[in-house]
């Protein structure tokens, strides 16, 4: 990372706004602002850094609206700094971090601590505050005060908001504050003690499973509560075909609902647990589902039912994952590989074209969180991601920027990656 307020990007192909990726241009950034877009621009200042992108695409900076940075409290898994390094490598210039920290993000001072810790980084961090005090699900947190401190949404993620009356009150507040409630959709009485998807594979392996209905019943409840209150419900990490159908119908009914999906849920199935001999790096929650569910995720992305792509980046230390499958914590890292998996499953298979895929990374997360959307226009703040869709590379341990390495994609050959990001006057070139 370097502080580079003045930068001349040469030979880039912008995608977004008036650009469709077919035109090669130069972009001059002066004092962190896009000052000029043209062809064959010449350096104007001695302190202007020149970077020839060699025809790489450039878009507005990507955003992941669902990550776990673990700080404060669990710095042995990840810190704000290492999590943002992983985000930068993955092409993300902004992330929203979930509140299951210690202490949880349930008061304004914790929100402001996170904002302060990240203010000098190239990746902007937007804290998501708790719905309930201490994230215990009993009483409503100080939502308005957290908004004043910089929170962008509210969630008890890691656990659902299980109390229906509490969720009703939260959605009423969300309507007044114009901020979404992001719920981890899980009926705990139906899901526990599940360690994988309940189905043919879990039966064959003899492992307690979590049925899809545990997710679907909570989504159905939240749809009804959102309809009743007028609040904005956002379904976190959707994973089942019936869940997608529920959201699709709710949108058709005019209910204020949005949702997101993780790359592993439109790429991998529960068969991986058997194929990989109980590798704990394919254990996450919601669990990997069936091929039918994977197909539904892809269909939901294609028809717009699923708004955004997120990672649910969930670092765990090696010793935490190197245990028997049923004792391992749920979660995988995902920031570094999200783009490559999306290229493989969505772009190369012609499910989405490049511009539509980028809306899932650039516009939609920010629309949901009511944040400014970066644009490639003269006079706007430079918030950019440089990327390609065809470079073949190996996700080796040397490419991991996270403090943890719990990824099912470690060692795999991937295609397409983020080459660099520019944000907050800082330029990060990603070296493999």
TrEMBL record:
Its EC number is 3.5.2.3. It is an enzyme of class 3 (hydrolase). The active site is at 312. Zn(2+) 1 binds at residues 66, 68, 157, 312. Residues 60-241 form the Dihydroorotase catalytic domain. It catalyses: (S)-dihydroorotate + H2O = N-carbamoyl-L-aspartate + H(+). CDD domains: DHOase_IIa. One of its GO terms (cellular component) is cytoplasm. GO terms for biological process: 'de novo' UMP biosynthetic process; purine nucleobase catabolic process. Zn(2+) 2 binds at residues 157, 184, 237. Binds 2 Zn(2+) ions per subunit. Gene3D superfamilies: Metal-dependent hydrolases, Urease, subunit C, domain 1. Its cofactor is Zn(2+). It comes from the Bacteria. One of its GO terms (molecular function) is allantoinase activity. Substrate binds at residues 68-70, 100, 316. Keywords: Hydrolase, Metal-binding, Pyrimidine biosynthesis, Zinc. Belongs to the metallo-dependent hydrolases superfamily. DHOase family. Class I DHOase subfamily. Catalyzes the reversible cyclization of carbamoyl aspartate to dihydroorotate. This is Dihydroorotase. It comes from Fodinibius salipaludis. The gene is pyrC.
């Amino acid at each position: 990372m370097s502080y580079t307020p003045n930068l001349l990007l040469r030979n880039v192909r912008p995608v977004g706004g008036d650009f469709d990726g077919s035109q090669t241009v130069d972009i001059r950034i002066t004092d962190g602002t896009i000052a000029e877009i043209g062809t064959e621009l010449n350096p104007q200042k001695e302190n202007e850094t020149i970077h020839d992108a060699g025809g790489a695409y450039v878009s507005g900076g990507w955003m992941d609206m669902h990550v776990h940075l673990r700080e404060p409290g669990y710095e042995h898994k990840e810190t704000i700094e290492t999590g943002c390094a992983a985000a930068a490598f993955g092409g993300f210039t902004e992330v929203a971090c979930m509140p299951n920290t210690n202490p949880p993000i349930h008061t304004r001072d914790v929100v402001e601590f996170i904002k302060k810790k990240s203010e000098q980084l190239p990746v902007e961090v937007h804290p998501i505050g708790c719905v309930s005090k201490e994230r215990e699900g009993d009483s409503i947190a100080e939502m308005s005060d957290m908004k004043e401190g910089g929170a962008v949404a509210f969630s008890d993620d890691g656990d659902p908001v299980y109390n229906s009356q509490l969720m009703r009150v939260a959605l009423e507040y969300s309507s007044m504050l114009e901020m979404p409630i992001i719920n981890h959709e899980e009926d705990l009485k139906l899901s526990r003690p599940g360690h994988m998807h309940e189905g043919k594979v879990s039966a064959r392996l003899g492992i307690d499973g979590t049925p899809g209905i545990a997710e679907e019943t909570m989504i159905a409840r939240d749809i009804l509560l959102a309809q009743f209150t007028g609040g904005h419900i956002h379904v976190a990490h959707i994973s089942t075909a019936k869940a997608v159908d529920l959201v699709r119908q709710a949108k058709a009914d005019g209910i204020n609902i949005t949702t997101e999906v993780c790359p592993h849920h439109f790429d991998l199935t529960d068969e991986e647990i058997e194929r990989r001999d109980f590798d704990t790096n394919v254990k996450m929650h919601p669990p990997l589902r069936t091929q039918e569910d994977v197909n539904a995720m892809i269909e939901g992305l294609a028809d717009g039912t699923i708004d955004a792509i997120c990672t649910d980046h969930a670092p765990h230390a090696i010793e935490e994952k190197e245990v028997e499958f049923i004792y391992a914590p749920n979660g995988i890292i995902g920031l570094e590989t999200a783009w490559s998996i999306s290229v493989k499953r969505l772009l190369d298979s012609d499910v989405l074209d490049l511009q539509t895929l980028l809306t899932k990374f650039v516009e939609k997360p920010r629309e949901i969180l009511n944040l400014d959307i970066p644009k490639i226009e003269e006079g706007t703040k430079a918030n950019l991601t440089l990327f390609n869709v065809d470079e073949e590379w190996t996700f080796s341990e040397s490419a991991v920027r996270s403090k943890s390495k719990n990824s099912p994609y470690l060692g795999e050959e991937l295609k397409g990656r983020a080459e660099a990001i520019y944000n907050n006057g800082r330029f990060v070139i990603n070296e493999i």
